[in-house]
Amino acid sequence: MKSMDCVGLFKLLFFENCKNMKFGIRKVSISKSIAARTSLTRIAKNNLGLKAPRGFGWVTNPHKALYNKVYNKTSVSIFSSKFWNWFK
Known about the structure:
single chain, mainly alpha
């Protein structure tokens, strides 16, 4: 099997599976925010102590961690100071 360099691994993990990546300003969804905070899986994980420590995303789900890292670098929330600095 051919060894894969860093760029090849990035393309395999990211570009092949993330064709609908959003760029720019994020849309706010109140219903999704409320649903995420009141979901049964979240409550179960917190009560049973099944959460991994912060920074363990690369261990538990590397594809999701990579997607989130790029998404957070390429988009901005209207609630962040980065967004409002555009208008100064």
